[in-house]
Amino acid sequence: MWGRIMLHHDDVSSKNSLIIQSFGFLRLNLCFYLLILIFISGCSSAPSINKAKVNVSGLFNDSYFNEVDIPATAEIYNLPDEIVTEIQRDFARSGGVNGLKIPVNLWLAEYINAQEGGFEYRDHYTRMASVTALERAGNCMSLVVLTTAIAQVLDVPVKFQEIDVEPIWDRRGGFYLVNGHVNMKLLHRDAPNSISLRGSDILVDFLPERSIRSYRVKQINKQTLSGMYFNNVAAEALVRGDYDLAYALVKRAIELDPYYVNSINTLAVIYRHKGLDEPAEKAYRYVLHLEPKNITTLFNLALILGEQDRLEEWKQVHKILELARINNPFYYFDMAQEAYFEKQYQEALVWYKRAVERADYRHEFYFGLSRAYWATGDQRRAKKTMKKALDLSHDETNQDRYKGKLQAMMRH
Fold this sequence. Notes:
The protein is α+β, with helices and mostly antiparallel strands. It has a domain at 329-410: Tetratricopeptide repeat domain (Serine Threonine Protein Phosphatase 5, Tetratricopeptide repeat, Alpha Horseshoe), CATH 1.25.40.10. The chain has helices at 81-93, 104-112, 129-135, 140-154, 222-240, 243-256, 261-273, 277-290, 295-307, 311-325, 329-341, 345-358, 363-375, 379-392, 396-410; strands at 3-5, 20-27, 30-36, 120-121, 137-138, 158-172, 175-186, 202-204, 217-220. The radius of gyration is 23 Å and the shape is globular.
């Protein structure tokens, strides 16, 4: 799996708060890819895309960026020779005393062992197979890339899938990140001296198959997957403020799949952060030619229209966005924060609860809810929700903060 990023901000006066989409965000029970609203990929329903012939070369503006070397596309799936040798040796040894091997796709799934903790999930961490093989850690995209690389070594046919899950929201700096989900299947291949289990395709995912069974599945090819990978790492570079690298990476992503509109949205976000509104708007308009109701792009386009006082155009876009905004849990969280710091604690409770209803995986939502409960005198619920915030946090700084608050609460 990997992630898409979507960048978005509710305040149309700020060019810094955009939406990105990507693959590779996991919290509690789902592994997703990240959006730039950044979208790294996944809307609640996949829009139909105008598959007319496209020419994206006019979207690029190389003169505004320093040239940066990036890996060749094939390189993201390459493994060091010593790891290839180790994998081949381990599989050869798997025959046992009778020399009867389990199917190679099943062996590979067990070797990866993602669902049983053999692969550490790490969000916002998209890496090539060579790095992931050594660390055995990464996000959803990293898992798929590594598994693909090993499948190439063992000649295992594969199938890549984009899963149309409900989006998971995150926020880093001035970006909203909306995460989606990708996985893959290892297909059956007959081999000499093997135990044949025909039709036994094996899912490789952080999640059990039953947990995603109800979602729509879209099969994608390796070239699209590669484009998604480069969009992911471009989004990560963008969040770090490395615009030259982000531009080089997203340009590769678009060249690999010009119909994957999230990459074009990412390109536009990069332009915005360079102060290049005209090429940014051109890219947004290009996306809307392919997907007229792409919410990620409409969010970001509204920022330009609002800043330029193009109010009639902004109103048309904003009619669509008002419905989408109510799905953004950070909208409710920000309202709760404002009420809390104005000492409107009952009102804050209402907003915090709404944020939690839409994103019960965000530790800071529970932390805010706990403080609001404490301020209203409900110590039992305050302690309970502070424990929840602590359980959800994987950052040492936040954990120390929540532990301190919880210990202080327990002394009362």
